[in-house]
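CORE FACILITY INTAKE
Project code: CF-77B
Contact: R.S. (postdoc)
Sample description: multi-component assembly, four entities in total
Requested service: structural model of the whole complex
Turnaround: standard
Below are the sequence entries exactly as provided by the requester. Do not edit them.
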Amino acid sequence: MALLQVEKMTKEFGGLRAVDSLDLTIEPGQIFGLIGPNGAGKSTAFNCIAGAFAPTSGKITFDGEVINGEKPWNLCKSGLARTFQIVKPFASKDVLYNVTVASFSTTNSRKHAEEKAMAVLESLNFADKKNVLAGNLTIADRKRLEIAKALATEPKLLLLDEVMAGLRPNEVDEMVSIFQDLRKQGITIFIIEHIMRAIMALSDHIVVIQFGKKIAEGSPAEIANDERVIKAYLGDDYVVA
Amino acid sequence: MNSQHINKIALLGVLALAFALPLVVRSATYLHILVLLFFYAYLTTSWNIVGGFAGVLPLGHAAFVGIGAYTSTVLSLQYGISPWIGMVVGGVLAMIAGIIIGLPTLKMRGAYFALATIAFAEGLRVMVENIDYLGPLKINGPRGLQIPPLETGFSHFMFATKEPYYYIILIMLLLVMLLTYMVSRSKLGYYLVAGGEEPEAAMALGVNVARARLIAMAVSSFLTALAGTFYAQFSLYIHPKSIISLDMSFEIAFIALIGGRGSIVGPILGALLLRPVSDFCRIYFGDSLPGLHLIIFGLVLILVMLYQPRGLQEPISRLYQRIINRPQPATSGS
Amino acid sequence: MLYVLEDTINGILMGSIYGLTAMGLTIIFGVLKVINFAHGSLLMVGMYVSYWAIRLTGVHPYVALILVIPIMFIFGYSLQKIIIRPIFIAEKNVREPVTVIIVTTGIWYILDNLTLLLFGPQYRSLGNNPLQGKMLELGEMFISMPKLYGFVTALVTAAAVHWFMHKTVMGRAIRATSMDREAASLMGIDQYKIYNVAFGIGAATTGIAAVTLIPFYNVFPTVGVLFDIKGFIIVVLGGLGSITGALVGGVIIGLIESVGPQFMTATWTEAIVYGLFLVVLFVKPSGLFGQKHDW
Amino acid sequence: MSLLDIHNLNASYGDVQVIFDLSLKVNQGEVVSIIGGNGAGKSTLLRVISGLLPASGGQIIFEEKEIQKDLPENIVAQGIVHVPEGRRLFPLMSVKDNLMVGAYNKRAREESEQTLQEVYSLLPRLEEREDQLAMTLSGGEQQMVAIGRGLMAKPHILMLDEPSLGLAPLLIKDIFETVRKIADQGMTVLMVEQDVRHSLSLSDRGYVLEHGRVVMEGQADQMIDDPHIREAYLGM
């Protein structure tokens, strides 16, 4: 059974169709990439799935439950965690505090929550920064914190929204290996990313959308050579060599 | 001796000083000033649970003071019920009011919430001023209620001297500080801070921000009302214009903002700073320069917002850290 | 029946003056997105300026507008430029400028109490003036002349602001800034200067409101507080940022206050106003007119 | 000396560095395209030039004057006009008022009526719709207003940020046709685009950005079919 099933999802903003009858199927254990040119509707699709807003129509099924329009905090408890494109740390608090907020979603005890947060930080080689104020972190560390927070909620599906934007090439590589590790631990990953090199290296399966519609899907190699994809990215007069 | 030891000793020293103070301060005027200082510190600490941790700006907390004061006073005057019981009843009523007012407003943007709380407090004041009898209960409208000092004693919450009031409010303050300390280290505290700083991110991490704020509002209004009963028993006269006043609501917020929102010591610092200004201005310049203390409040508020927007608690605790760490430079991080 | 009609007319007249007192609040909010808690104090300052301008020159109250409008404009402009602007710049990246609200509260306290120091707590009334106690007799109804003047002034001011915002370069720049600060700066508009001007205009319209009030209303240091809270209620009722909304909100309050006492004691009407405010806030927080820029 | 000369520019959002040691120039009368995938730093570059985002290092020299420390409103006054990504019209203002706001700077203000007629003759649709509120226009029309509003400011250089963004293919052709007309009248244009083919076909020169750095530059007609561009966009 698919972990996440999106059927005929449409989202309109005042007559404008940002997402148009989109179908997606994510199998457990997959790293699933969603790409498309600027303004294609990726973030809108992402936000509908993550519960930031309800789709206008269509059906989203997660782990056997229909989750259309479900509140974000309930989605989190059912095992769906997300990161934000613009990272949102609790800036006046330290790293451990930030992650503990997240691990409270599975316990009421501060001691347990902190222990769990520490375990997540250690798994990401991040424990040495536990007392640093989140507002003082570098961007790479903020992205890492964002992932640590999402992981501390013990997700089955991790939604990643451009977590590599603004990272240096070596930091991107580090991020890629973190995600590969997570997959090994059995976490399914749904990723939107602009850095093609990374998404091509990571994904098992990629869906490309333009004007809110799916225009192609397949393995990274198939996508990179798909005529419709190349035209979507490079202009529709582009001569495909 | 490490800094943790110094902290403990300093804390004990301050506590001992606070308890010993009435032995030294024999003047009823100064004791009165101290009682009011602690009273405001208590109110601000209660305010801080919602106004500080949750990051919203309530500007009508005097309404809860009024609910507490009126409830216990009416119950004790008409039915002879001990103010201690009335205190709890008032707290519960205020909590219900806090939930009713918070339910629709806590989701709003900050300015709307601030306005809604002001309107609630002002509306309540106007109603109290208009009501002589609420069913069988005598509210006495604009004339207010006088508490005749008939029987003194603990169960009557009435004393001939100021010292007992001093100790009661001191203990109330210490308890409420302990409570906010515990809240700040609990799941609720974490959720309030997270929801106050980045509501969207907090929700994605499983935090029902509106519910956490509502709980904070309920706790805060309950605690605030308890101080209302104290005030009624201390001053023996309550009156809608003085106890449900905008000035009181704003003073609470000012103390918190100047001292430091969302910190445990912030309200104490704010009260230590502002209350004496207010009292001494009134004593010495009340006739010649009326309103001087409010001008000072306004100026201090603007300066703090300009240069220390997170309150004076921050630079002061930095200074304290530097002093206690001076003998031996910071050794280890653990 | 006639009483009700008379009260209704007087309620509309007084309500439009309320609307005029709140117009500056809504303009400032529309551009800066900040609720100016010192707005009542601006009105109070305007009333003292009008009072002294009329007293010292002995002119007809409305002639004093020549002095009051520029003085209040400069006052508002400077207040924003000197005190509020630095906070704005420091909080540039904050979604909601709560600190600015707090600072305007500080300004409120300073202005009210400084006035108390300077002029004392006593109520001052203009006393003998050409509009004092004047009534217009319509059949058996008596309509207050100073309020009628105020009503006309409120409409003229609203029309003038509308004209300014639509037909002048500065007005268009203000509207542009209120809709999209960044895009406006790409058009060469200095947003902080626009804030100064908007604050100046807000204060100037408040000064006009002060002139309409002064022929029949006492002035004292805390007079602003009454109008401050009324002003918040009016602009939220009408929809923050809307000038028509401010006038309509004002008229609603005016009507409740003047017709209400036919059915209940006068002070109860005040409670009804707060109740109505809370209901609107709960049911339709964007106000009756939404957050439209109708100017 | 070029009209616009950028040397070793660096820029960051907070502590995220987005532009690294970037150098580029635009000569009088040229059309220059900046292309590159999502997130390559193209829009950021325009935001730094127009003063919305401060540069953290390097120089921007425009008409022989350093401008990297100037405020946006002063940069417009000197003749650099930025038509932002996503149009950013003033939604509740009429088309005409939107255009008139474009002529806010002193240099443009005096000639605004005359410029308006020029813009109308270039974009006749706008005259038909001059009283309509901007928010009621279609995406293509909104982009036309945005470009017209930029022209109202009397630019010496017009910077266009993704004018084709979110538009259907037919409308994209219209927009590029308009840009072509503007260039033919002698306007210097610096354009950020995703639509490689269209933008390079009307440009004199082009730059390819990747991770905030220039990775390729050259004559537009030579770049147009270069396989490296595809690699830069699709990552393989």
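Facility notes:
- Chain A has a mean pLDDT of 90.
- Residues 85-154 of chain A form one domain.
Invoice: internal transfer
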